[in-house]
Target: Lysine transporter LysE
Amino acid sequence: MSIEFILTAIVVCLLPGTGVLYTLAIGLARGFRASISAAFGCTLGIVPAAFASIIGLAAIFHTSALAFQTLKYLGVAYLLYMAWAMLRTGGALSISEKPVASSHIRIAVSGALLNVLNPKLSLFFLAFLPQFVPATTENATEALVTHAAVFMGLTFITFIGYGACAALARDYVISRPTVLKWIRRSFAGTFGFLGLRLAFSER
Model:
């Protein structure tokens, strides 16, 4: 496994996306332990896309408009739901002085769905992983699985870092209601924007 793959994977993991936003929101609202569940769920949601790319199913999404559009609009609906959940009272970004007791399974499932319902993730893996596996590799499947597993591990570690930073910022946010209001609006607006961008994307 090359150092180029490790560095590229770290950069990709650090880029803000739906998983990062979700983990930050959970860290702010529920605390560090809950953010670990969010990070785990988002990482788990990568498995179907990685598996699809490895066995070639991602090519189906590239050639089948119906399959791609169906999953795309499910993803759009879920992103818009997350935007609404960020804004509503008692929703995903409802912050109190003490971390609210939450179902860690529910947090993880919501995080996983964000990635499972992202049709572009499988296309990303289809384009990303093969670049770092030489054509002369004897067992390409094993190499792809190893690279995917390392990418998921880096994703989990990176997201835990994001969650920890968000949890540390809780006290600052709690003491400033105006800041909290704009954070909720920013998260909701970002999820809404991502949903609309996905809705109007061709591929």
